[in-house]
């Protein structure tokens, strides 16, 4: 392929690499998030592609070495049995952050010590419930997962879901929103409102395969703090490396 064709391919990839919003098909998620705010109006439109955060497939704990998760709400028939956690990107290892009985106000802290992730769960009154660990082989990056009583597991990496719509594209069971440094939220329903800062993210999940889902993304809604999204290499970035290699080869052969 000559350089002109490669540049054309790059422009096509650039166009297809743009991230579109995941359609949220009811107003339930917007209403639920509005209800968390001090003024009853979250300054985020959940269907706005500029306000849905992407990429949200891979994550890590930021430099403070401890991250926090709060279960904000679950509007789902499977809520009492649905579990939520993180998974190793390179193995089958997982670590549960919320068990099935967890409900609004439950929280879990996540720490990484060497190769080990340590999760400590508390109930809505702040009482200690459990502590679990998992070895992720030293990789600091991980994904989030949701598992339902139907034994369906959905991943933040949508390609792992094996769940396709008619368009042949992997259906995304997670929509994410970054804090806007404006709203004040009470995600654990304790009556205390804190700033929804850029260090906070809301993770909202759909718990059914799309051929039978309502796509309201209210089946588990979690606010996380001190988690950092990790961008994946885009096709355009990969192609840019190829272009650089081609240019080097052309210089050598002249």
From TrEMBL:
Keywords: Signal. Residues 229-251 form the Ice-binding protein C-terminal domain. InterPro entries: Ice-binding_C, Integrin_alpha_N. Residues 1-21 form the signal peptide. It comes from the Bacteria. This is PEP-CTERM sorting domain-containing protein. It comes from Brumicola blandensis.
